[in-house]
Design goal:
single chain; alpha/beta; UDP-N-acetylmuramoyl-L-alanine:D-glutamate ligase; ten-stranded mixed beta sheet; four-stranded mixed beta sheet; 14 strands; 33% helix; 22% strand
Length: 327
Amino acid sequence: MLAFAADKPFLVVGRAGMDLYADPVGARTEDAAQFVTALGGSSANIAVALSKFGKPCALVTCVSDDAIGRFVTNQLRHYGVDASKVRKINSDCRTSLAVVESRVEDHQSVIYRNNAADFQMDQGDVESIDYSAYCGLIVTGTCLTLEPSRSATLLALRKAREAGIPCVMDLDYRPYSWESAGAAKQVYEAALDQLDVIVGNDDEFGHMAGEYEDGESYARALSARGKYAIYKRGEKGSRTFGPNELVIDTGIFQVTPLKPTGAGDSFLGGLLASLCRGNSLEQALLDGSACAAMVVSRVGCAPAMPDLKQLASFMEQTDTPEQVLGV
């Protein structure tokens, strides 16, 4: 059974940065009248999603010791995320920056991650942590892209496993960040043995399988190894595979999207927070789907994450998607 201790915080490892959203809503970046700032980065977004549901969490990452780095740490604290493990670095590395649009059609995202500060997270940032003080470890595949972040993330997973806490990874595979597709697959495979939950979309599982068409079979095979694999299929919803031949199909909530970004981070945060409230995996997956729908219909990622009251209101007012169990 997949469960997380309700009385302990999560530990999240990975990227935090600044997002710049073209304004007004619907504008292309090149036509923007101004830009609106927000906290961003996949790991930071997941941490905020958890925090907004009242689930304490700490983020481990690096930011540049400058105004942008201070913006990020200030925003983390604003959302209630423990930023005491965020290390500031003095070098030519910079906190990542994403310029994005609140539009679906011809959506553009420009991400500045050359020599990114979060890739400077090293083993010293993770080796002295008391992992037993946390209910689970969450990492994203972005952390594995480059050294020293790669080795630090793998060490964190090993130490979490030794401490007996569940490990969760969003595959978050971004081909442009890796030296090769083969290298990415090899590093991901090294992480898999330490993981209890693997979340990814059809492209990401397809990459792991070696062929896009084999992605679902690959996800299903992970369940035979005692893991939970959440296979996201876009407008078709998600299909979750677990031990003892568990299969859960979860649909999506129908909304009018404002943008395509932030759904995965909100889905994972909402799912884990729901499990911590004692809900079944079926209900937690439904909560995660609702959170994803809410975020894509709002401006921003971190500021768009819902709280429990907003989630409950959304669920009451929106038709529940069909959910098929035991497929």
